[in-house]
Structures are given as structure tokens and as C-alpha cells.
Amino acid sequence: MTAKKPFAPDMTRAWQRMLSGRRLDLLDPSPLDIEISDIAHGLARVARWNGQTSGAHIFSVAQHTLLVELVLREQMPRVDVRFRLAALLHDAPEYVIGDMISPFKAVLGGDYKVVEKRLLAAIHIRFGLPRVLADDITQAIKAADRGAAYLEATHLAGFSVAEAKRLFGRDPGLPEATERDYLTPWTAARAEKQFLARFGLLLG
User: Fold this and answer.
1) pLDDT digits (tens, 9 = 90+) for 105-127
2) Strand, coil or helix: what is 9?
3) What is the pLDDT of residues 181-197, one digit of tens each?
């Protein structure tokens, strides 16, 4: 009897099958293989802060992106709706590559960033945004991202105010009722639904 060969994984496969039926190549992503339903479904099930947050549910990347878009609106009330959409989609690549905390991204180095940038560019093209955003818009979205991170850190992830200020900057100063809703972790189903609803509104 011939001995069974050990299983050898296909090291050339760099794509993921999506629930929509699309097959997304991670190294050379095509805008044609990107569906908002896949993005919403994935982001609603990816945990921020490696899951180290309080509450009955994870605080998902989908909920985080909604918070970032809200902070951007508060900070720049007249910002073009396309760039509010860009804020909502700023972490969209994480629907396939997951959310990694910043210290681990630094350990991984440039390769991770290359894949992330290619995915984000394909996502932008798919939804009518510039492949690469202007520097001022990129910086505004990063500032809103830091504001959201400050709120998440202090409300959900156990950071002190002083520590959060040092790492993420100042409190963006959202209304208390808004903070209470957006910083209460939602179910995956609600996060997905809210993300899709906001996307539809912004895309017009």
C-alpha cells in the first residue's frame, strides 16, 4: 500500500471566497469583485481592540467606521459627502485582512500596508471615490479616526483619560446621548444593517 502523502497547502492561493460568490484576489484586487454586502457582513464580525472591550458584544469595525464618519461630520460639518463616504470605508480592507492593533502592524512592517493600500484603492474605485485621497482629506479622516479611538479607549477598552490623550489626542466632544448609543456595542446584525443604511445614504 502506498503511504498517504501529508497534506500540502496551496501556497499560491491568495484569494478569498465571499458570501456573495465573488472571489477576491488579495494581492491584485479587482473593483469588480468588491460588494458592499460582503464588506458590511465582514466588518460587523471583526472585533476592534482584539476583542478586549467591555459589553455583551464585540465592538465591531463596522460600528467603529460609523463612529469615525460621525466624528468627521462633527469636526467638518460642510465636508463633501464623498469624503464622508471615504471615512465610512476607511477600514473597509479589514473585511478580508482583519483588524490588527497598531503595535502589531508596526511589527509586520511594509508588506501589510501594501496589501491594505491595494484593497482600499480597489474599494475606492468600486464606489466612485478617488483611488488615493488628497492629503488634507486623508489627514481629516485620520483625525476623526483618532477621536473615535479616544472614545473607544476610554469608554470600552480600559484606558485612562491621560493615557488616551497621550496616544490618541483629545476627546472629540460628541453629544452625550450620541456617545451612549455609538459606544454601546451592537449585535453583528445591527452593526451590519446600520453600516449598509449609512452607506446607502452617503452614496445617494
Assistant:
1) 666 666 778 889 999 999 999 99
2) coil
3) 999 999 999 999 999 99
**Which stretch of DSSP H or E encloses residue 199?**
helix 188-203
Determine the Cα–Cα distance for residues 40 and 38; give it in Å rounded to an integer: 6
Task: Say if CB 62 and CB 151 are below 8 A apart.
Answer: no
Cα–Cα nearest to 62, from 35, 88, 101: 88
CA distance 138 to 87: 9
How many whole angstroms separate alpha carbon 161 and alpha carbon 159?
6
Q: E strands within the chain?
A: 15-17, 23-25
Report the alpha-carbon distance of residue 123 to residue 88 in Å, rounded: 12
Say if residues 188 and 60 touch (Cβ distance below 8 Å).
Answer: yes
Name the stretches of the chain with pLDDT < 70.
Answer: 1-13, 101-110
Nearest to 90, CA basis, from 138, 34, 48: 138
* Closest CA relative to residue 122, chosen from 31, 10, 33: 31
All structural domains of the chain: 31-203 (1.10.3210.10)
CA distance 6 to 2: 12
pTM of model > 0.85:
yes
Q: How far apart are CA 157 and CA 24, in angstroms?
A: 32
Question: How many angstroms from the chain centroid is the CA of residue 146?
Answer: 13
